[in-house]
Amino acid sequence: MIDRLKKIYLLYETIMASTKTACRPKCSHCCTCNVTLTSLEARFITFFLPPAQKKAVYTKITQTFPEKRFIPGMTTNQFARLCMEGADLPNEENDPSWGKCPLLENDLCTVYDVRPFGCRALMSETDCMHTDCAQMPPWILTLNNLFLQAIEHLDQKEYSGNLSDMLQIALSGNDVTHQDMQHHDPKNEALFVKNECIKCLMIPPEHRERMDPIVKNLSELINSAPDTGHDTNR
């Protein structure tokens, strides 16, 4: 699955290649401690980081672990399902003032090449360091939700959580699976939320035509046979 996740990231980069943004190196206004990711993405990070860098990143997280951070109460696919069912949505507290991402160093990401989709999806047409908020075209919001749903679906047997919580486990040498997470520290289960498969896609009518070929590409990637080599569930 790691290979398929990499292909999903590449597909997103291809789609976004011609999109003009105000983002640039050291533009880290949106790089807060509130980023979330799936267990598959945590494994992706640990798989591709060299041993020395893994140790450095683990040290950095443990030394600058954010006391207050966003703890997801639901995943993207759960949100879509609850909306479809007309159910009540859980309250989720999220405040960027809680602090910067612990993986930043001199306003640069120390794991940029293997960063999770939650970071890849952040963009703005204007300089949000001056406006204090990102300006994102509506179709890109739809695109981002679509990719978030696909990545979660690919990792539907596992879970999601805050980047600091997830990587602290993954980089400590423990497998990032729901079972291993409970064994690692049962009281921390409330920090994580179980992933779900896709029940419905969050695509508004005005974006369906534009998203149709992307949905097809994502579906082929998700359902493709595992590649040889390092495509693995663990």
Question: Please, could you describe this protein's structure?
Answer:
By secondary structure, the protein is mainly alpha-helical. The protein has one domain (2-223). Helices cover 44% and strands 6% of the residues. It is built from ten helices and five strands. Strands 1-4-5 form a three-stranded antiparallel sheet. A two-stranded antiparallel ribbon has the order 2-3. Strand 2 and strand 3 form a beta hairpin. Helix 1 (2-16) runs antiparallel to helix 10, helix 2 crosses helix 8 and helix 7 runs parallel beside helix 10 (208-223). The longest helix is centred in the middle third of the chain and has 17 residues, at 138-154. The chain is globular, with a radius of gyration of 17 Å. The relative contact order is 0.22. The mean pLDDT is 87.
Order of secondary-structure elements: HEHHHEEHHHEHHEH
Number of helices: 10
- Poorly predicted regions are none
- Residues in helix, %: 40-55%
Radius of gyration based on Cα positions: 17 Å
Query: Termini, distance in Å?
Result: 9 Å
Strand order of the largest sheet: 1-4-5
Basic shape: globular
- The number of E-state strands comes to 5
Beta-strand fraction estimate: 5-15%
What is the structural class? mainly alpha
Task: Please render the helix and strand layout as text.
Layout: H1 2-16, E1 36-38, H2 39-48, H3 51-63, H4 76-85, E2 104-105, E3 108-109, H5 117-120, H6 128-131, H7 138-154, E4 159-162, H8 163-170, H9 178-184, E5 192-194, H10 208-223
Helix pairs in contact: 1-10, 2-8, 7-10
